[in-house]
Amino acid sequence: MADLVAEGAGIGVTAWGMVHPSRFDELEMVPIQDLESTLVIIASHERRGSAGVRQMTRMLIEHVSEAVTDDRWVSSRLDGTAGPYGE
Fold first, then answer.
1. Alpha helices in 1-87 (DSSP H)
2. pLDDT tens by residue, 17-27
3. Helices and strands: H and E segment counts in the chain
4. What is the pTM of this model?
5. Distances (CA, A) of 36 to 7, 43, 76
6. Using CA atoms, how far apart are residues 58 and 62, in angstroms rounded to an integer?
């Protein structure tokens, strides 16, 4: 998945361990903590993504933030910044 994101195919949500440390300089990652495993939204530093991809990312971040804040997703917490797509 990280290869597709780095090439500009879109964003991805994956387990933290699925992104090799050698890719950390190429990708923006936002950790979503306290699930059974940590999930991150990843985006390429090189490609901004289409307006639709950026909007979908903002909507996903907003939806998860609201669910965590409203205690609808009680096993979760947000950790980190939203990066360029969560402006």
1. 2-6, 51-69
2. 778 888 888 88
3. 2, 4
4. 0.48
5. 29, 22, 9
6. 6
